[in-house]
Amino acid sequence: MANNNLTNAKNAKNDEFYTQYHDIEKEIGAYLEFNPNVFRGKTVLMPCDDPEWSNFTKFFAQNFERFGLKKLISTSYAPESKNYKSDYQPTLFESNDPQFDKDKTVKNGKIFTLTRDKLGDGRIDVNDLEWSYLDGDGDFNSKEIKKLRDESDIIITNPPFSLFRDFLAWIIGAGKQFVVIGNLNAITYKEVFPLIKNDKMWLGNGFHAGNAYFSTPFAKEYAEGVYNKETGLVKFRNCCWFTNLDHGRRHQPLPLMSMEDNLKFSKHKELKGKSSYSHYDNYDAIEVPFTDSIPSDYTGIMAVPISFLDKYCFEQFEILGVTQRNDDPYKTKQYSLADYSNANDLNARGVIIVNGEPKAMYARVLIKMKSL
Ligand SMILES: C[S@@+](CC[C@H](N)C(=O)[O-])C[C@H]1O[C@@H](n2cnc3c(N)ncnc32)[C@H](O)[C@@H]1O
Fold it and tell me: The whole model's pTM is what?
């Protein structure tokens, strides 16, 4: 029981992050720039979003006409079902409504739909959202929300991070288009990496300068540097957008220097003045410690940081694998426990020999140049 409570507390902390309006605006702008009709005639579902606080719902409702949407559906999760136990109070908007129900407000999720100019003021916007209680608690995995998913064309949200794997499977299984926020480290998951490798999913346009800001009831628990007292927001460097909607940035090739020029002129001390790039001991691959140091003229396998995916251009590179997984075919060597007490760790990672000793490296994406 104590353990359950701990897990719930941890999950609650992972799940309650509210996305900023301008981050959504910037990201969605990139898809519209690539294809101005990307949302035209579409039904968009936001399955973790109460318009009272979800900027996703507000942003899409305010732009309903400009985007040419057919229908916007936004559902919220019942307060009683959340891992995060708050001192929940219904809003005046809800409690003043004739359909208000004091039991349902805590036990049931809600559904908000936008299809028409309900108020008759000549425009469709957030004030035209119509709502009712769901039969269930709004769990995205429930039959009720699955039905909404099946009638939608595009799923857009920041889902609960503790359920990211399930959430992505829920979308992919239904073959839907999507734009969702997640943690960059998720790319090493066995359910996620094949989607990236096979170009079924890619990183979105991205947060400004790679900084994702969220509001969260747990903001003050974060250290200085993550929590900003002035804004009340937390900042994360490892959050990204995952999508299968096309955008322009992913078709822009990275400008690169040759291997010789990198070794002579690189701005990174790890490379400048060295005679060569390090070679892996258990992969036939060179170590490229920074994305901007990928040599333009190397034809073999290169192991690059996973943040490379933010700059990945499908036309320029081929993705082969990721070192954190045991099942990739590019591994050339296994370490035995008889020789190395940390053999299990070494076998699960890319390894470089440093001062005669094997050193396990961070997760790396294995890539090859396409155009050569
Ligand atoms: C990361 S927050 C993001 C909220 C909103 N999409 C945004 O970006 O501001 C995820 C929300 O999903 C809710 N949630 C947790 N589990 C859920 C589930 N199984 N089904 C639907 N929503 C869930 C959480 O309580 C939380 O409010």
Answer: 0.95
